[in-house]
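Take a careful look at the protein record below. Let me know whether the structure tokens fit the sequence:
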Amino acid sequence: MDPLTVIATKSEKSTLDTAGSDSAITGDELERRGALSLGDALRYEPGVSVPFDFTGADPLVPYLGSGEKAINVRGMEGNRVSLSVDGIRQPQEFLTAGGMAGPGRVYFDPATFGQVELYKSASSSLYGSGAMGGAVNGRTVSPESLLGKSLSGTSVRNSVTLSSVNESLNNRLAAAYGNGVLAHSIVYSFREGSERKNNSESPSDPQHFHSNAMVFKSVYVADAWKVTASIDLFGQDVFTDVDSIETGNNRSVTHQSDRKRERFSLAGELSPEGGSEFFDQLEGQIYRQDSKQESVNLQDRSDNNVKRRRDISFQTKIAGLELEGSRLIELDRSSHALRLGIEISRSDVESNYLKTDTLQDGSVNLDDRKSMAPSEADRLGIFLIDEISLGVEEAWILTPSFRFDHYSVTPLDDQSFQSNTSGVGFNPVEYENAILGSPSVSLLRRWTPEINFYLSYSHGIRNPSAEELNGFFEHPPTDSSTSAFIINANPNLKEETSDSFELGTQGRFSSGIYEFSFFKNYYDGFIELAKQPSPGVVDLYSNENLGKVEIHGIEFSWDWESSPKQKKDQALEAGISASWSRGRRTDQEKSPLNSVEPWKSVAYLGWRGTEESWGSRITATYIGAKAQSEIDQTAGEPPPIDGSLVLDLVAWHKFEDHWEFRGGLNNLTDQRYFLWSSARRGGGHSGSSTEERNRQPGINGFVGLNFEF
């Protein structure tokens, strides 16, 4: 009930000792609730949602891929939320083809995580550009998480889970061995299944997917040194027969997607006994990561009897170096926990789009529609945190932090891209950020040993992505409602900025914990596509810094248990959490903000046996309606949705020391409902999306079996 996290302050401490809204969800929790995905992992988190798209959800865009695409935190999502694995940045979101076919950012399997950490407050002063909406970090399984700090012994755990919601099988193996000096760990997850079922008369498409994810780590400890080498591999193949959009010109559509990520890193820690003259601990990491998605879309069209093939790919390669040093300075009336760090990285970003039409007479037309200039993005970040403890028994903690960032994007020469854009005189632009500093300050008051109050302010930034700066898309006129248009570059794009304020209180007692926060966030310069004056019949669009947005809200959580887990007695557990927020544009439109989620509250009641030999929990999730008056319909017509109440039940039982059986039923009452996070995303190309496909699953269940020694 009191997990440790590093995401809020870059130093490990309790989630209740940080001035902000943060949480940590362990791998064991995710396994017991039968979580299959990142969306399942964050399902009960107040103020958080994970949008999900179906393959070809738009009947006019057959090349839309399925899956979870982004994380929404308090109304911010996409590249405005920092997403990392073991502290290493994940690829930025692409929005090629006018925002219709991006691959998203989830290039990992949560089954490889030992813990998911979430920080909802703006954190650009720690993580730089892209953290103005918060930060999420997945911490993968390591020798320490399986063997403990001693790094000695053997641990093997295998779990198998069958789920009906997507007819999937998952096998997860986690093992470690160490002798106290050298230790190794591996976690391997295999999945296969089909497209997620929905509770409607529009069935899911025939689909088969399989994925493999593996993280191997070796840790060496000697004297003051600790060195960790990591290999992190992920691959996913998905084939979908997209028969749900076999209407109009589409006689048949298939979609094949191959997604992979490879990461190699070497991390070190130096903690000399008694510290050194300049630092108490020095940490560093060097890494290389390559993320890529390739998709092949085949479309048999009735108009002109064309067989159309689309080859679309997105790739981000990143190499980086991080160094952090910490030092504790004790003075007469205060102490200073200083942390100074530097981050250097280079990303190579590229996307490709090749359209091939095979005509009835056998002739072939090739159309290389490369939609962005390949680019190099360089980042240099330097941050400083000073955690100042004041007063008797450190009753006051003042934490100023500041980050300096230099960020640049350099487009590269590419013949196919230049040929694609020569007709309209497109010129890729170089970019260098103008706003270099991101300050933050928080004040935490320990009212009693159990209760604290805090106040925080953070200034956030987001630099334009390489695609926003140098993305190009030309859409020819069609027989449908879509007119010809061009998306052009804007060399004058600036950073998005935010000013975030939060006031809260936290309490920790022998019987449980509570948290309450109120936040008010101001955003300026949102980068959005805007129509430009243009001669002729072709519409011209480019990205501009347009939006001014305000979001405010409250969040509350309370967890109680009749006996602490440390006592290993039988215990009753109960809890409730809630989140409410409102967002609106404050520029000329004065319209609601569609990315803000409706009211959400979660309550649970559970029981666990002696030594946690068995347990059960029932959870109720209520999500409020999204009324017509709360929806901005200037760019399409997202439908209003009704409220929903969903009940989930899970249970587990340990037997014969090494075995554990798990099972659960979700949506016990077979509720037919929408989630706003997914329903509002349909129809990127036209407003005629099939709403019924976006209904959430009906009653579904899972069973699992664990073996451990």
Summary: Residues 249 and 302 are 5 Å apart (CA to CA).
